[in-house]
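in:
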């Protein structure tokens, strides 16, 4: 139903921590290259159709965030700034010149932190269904408190699985939705240790301020949304547009949070359009 080639991880060690990435592309690629950033409790597999499609013409590097996927999972704090510093280091080590940074879910917030902290690194950025500018009241909401308590509690795996299933939403054919979940969403979700998941989401919700990075981001910028009520309520694209007037917004039709897999043709077409037209701005 979703048949894609399997890539093998490549490891680089930063300060004793192995960071994994997956790479594909032609021997003489078009520019710019793409660097893909997975979301919370996910891995590079969320971008499998994009890797397959864009590697026909471009160098594509998909990371597994520290603590996620094939990367090491040290006991430490996991912050947006720390993830961003890892990826900037990986870009330097890999010789990625002016990549377009694409982040899914929490990966979009990390992409913004990356491009704000390192304003000369990227030539463009795309965020896909990311909560980028959560309103302050969200920190004190009962919904967020329940999530943090659940992720930090004894039923971590059950809460994490249920959250991942629910945010996928019920648009796709039931059998296809289950195949996507079982093949690409559940394995990295169950593989992410509790200390990683809890630290990352707690630091994002309670301690991360995206405004300085947004103010410092002047490259072409796009946001691709899905039909997820929670994300729609919490992302505040109007505020992001105030800080980044170059922002362009698009939406996939009748797809949940994992739209990169569910409606890959729509996402690929939007990325293609941004690369060919949006990058001129």
């Amino acid at each position: 139903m979703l048949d894609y080639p399997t890539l093998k991880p490549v490891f680089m060690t930063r300060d004793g921590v192995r960071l994994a990435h997956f790479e594909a592309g032609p021997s003489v690629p078009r520019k710019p290259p793409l660097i893909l950033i997975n979301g919370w409790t996910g891995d590079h597999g969320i971008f499998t159709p994009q890797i397959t499609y864009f590697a026909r013409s471009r160098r594509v590097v998909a990371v597994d965030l520290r603590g996620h996927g094939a990367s090491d999972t040290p006991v430490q704090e996991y912050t947006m700034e720390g993830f961003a510093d890892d990826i900037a280091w990986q870009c330097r080590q890999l010789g990625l010149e002016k990549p377009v940074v694409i982040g899914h879910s929490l990966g979009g917030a990390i992409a913004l932190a990356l491009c704000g902290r390192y304003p000369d690194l990227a030539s463009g950025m795309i965020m896909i269904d990311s909560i980028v500018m959560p309103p302050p009241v969200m920190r004190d909401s009962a919904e967020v408190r329940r999530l943090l308590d659940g992720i930090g509690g004894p039923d971590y795996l059950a809460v994490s699985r249920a959250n991942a299933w629910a945010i996928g939403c019920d648009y796709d054919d039931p059998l296809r939705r289950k195949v996507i979940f079982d093949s690409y969403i559940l394995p990295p979700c169950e593989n992410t240790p509790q200390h990683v998941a809890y630290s990352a989401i707690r630091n994002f919700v309670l301690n991360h301020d995206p405004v300085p990075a947004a103010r410092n981001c002047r490259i072409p910028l796009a946001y691709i949304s899905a039909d997820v009520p929670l994300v729609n309520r919490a992302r505040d694209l109007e505020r992001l547009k105030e800080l980044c007037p170059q922002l362009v917004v698009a939406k996939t039709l009748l797809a949940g949070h994992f739209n990169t897999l569910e409606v890959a043709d729509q996402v690929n077409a939007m990325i293609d359009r941004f690369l060919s037209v949006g990058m001129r701005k």
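note: The longest helix spans residues 174-191.
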